[in-house]
């Protein structure tokens, strides 16, 4: 019978395929014989999943979740033989996930049908589960950042809330007011058993706090000050080593670099300033001066800066995105722009891959996510320049994108349409869409934690004044 993923009209025609389990799959019990088998020419991923399950001796019936929470021992044993969903990649199709009939995919890429078509398969991603529990906050949640088991949230009332990720739920352990205006962005890094927290507010302040390893205490450390710089900081990113360099992008297109953790070690970097803390006591706060200023780095607001998640301990190059439609690669030491990629839309947010150096994902007001390759060769010319666009799937402004730390092909996005989407860059359509917020509410930020013991999690904040959790 024709597969629902295919629109081929060649019913009855067959092709031969050779199925092979991807080498990256740890569970080798999912291997099937590699000898060629005949399948309908218009078979797609659902039909091929049924074939693989049949060859594995697994059930090919419905695999819907049961409403009955109680399971017998026999049911538990049957779970090991339950039907699985698989993804497929036809050899010679540029590593693209199969989203049409096998014959049509093969013909489109010039693959001969005279021989068996090699197809690699692997388990599909789990269906996401939105937790019914949520953390209520006093105002909109504008930013999220994680450090180990701690999750930090920045709110429009100027407060930072600290949570511990305890098993299935978040537990708030501390909160502090850091600014008089709404927090625009926030980033964290670990240095000498402390978490350093940078927060930028719409009151034009850029503050640095330190937090103990348990998250129960946050102390004001200093303020980043640049004479003549009177605009709001719109993006932040810490570099890990050798010192915790902080990059900030401003609303006027300027990029500043701050040597935060070394501030005050010599008189030229910082000067102490007395300031009342949240407890009412006066303390000395460092006035941190920028180590480098890239004036007019962009012609409009800098919406994202990244040292590159692939190697955050390498503070030699910086990637930036802007409302001026461009992505730029910077040589930090020379303060020189190595590469400029111009797009057709405002860049609203960006993130860099943990697995491929120079690969950037950006979100845009036109409801679209785009991929860029900013790698350069020795002559500082882009070796591969691409503006690869996913099909528009969101219905409003894309507010945040983040790559998975464990899966080189996965990223997640949030949007003002209230949804979070999981993407695989080998397909132009999202794998899953989760409606997180109600009507008229916006998704503003997210934090992708892919190393959790019970599987990947995405924490999402937005205009409904809460943090919600999606498990994969």
UniProtKB/TrEMBL annotation:
Superkingdom of origin organism: Eukaryota
WD repeat start and end residues: 295-340, 360-382, 391-433
The entry's keywords: Nucleus, Repeat, WD repeat
Region (Disordered) location: 58-80
Main location: nucleus
GO cellular component, one term: nucleolus
Signal peptide: none
Keyword Nucleus applies: yes
Parts of the chain that traverse the membrane: none
Subcellular location: Nucleus, Nucleolus
Record carries keyword Oxidoreductase: no
Record-annotated NLE domain positions: 24-93
InterPro entries: NLE, WD40/YVTN_repeat-like_dom_sf, WD40_PAC1, WD40_repeat_CS, WD40_repeat_dom_sf, WD40_rpt
PROSITE patterns: WD_REPEATS_1, WD_REPEATS_2, WD_REPEATS_REGION
Official protein name in the record: NLE domain-containing protein
Organism from which the protein derives: Cylindrotheca closterium
Species classification: Eukaryota, Sar, Stramenopiles, Ochrophyta, Bacillariophyta
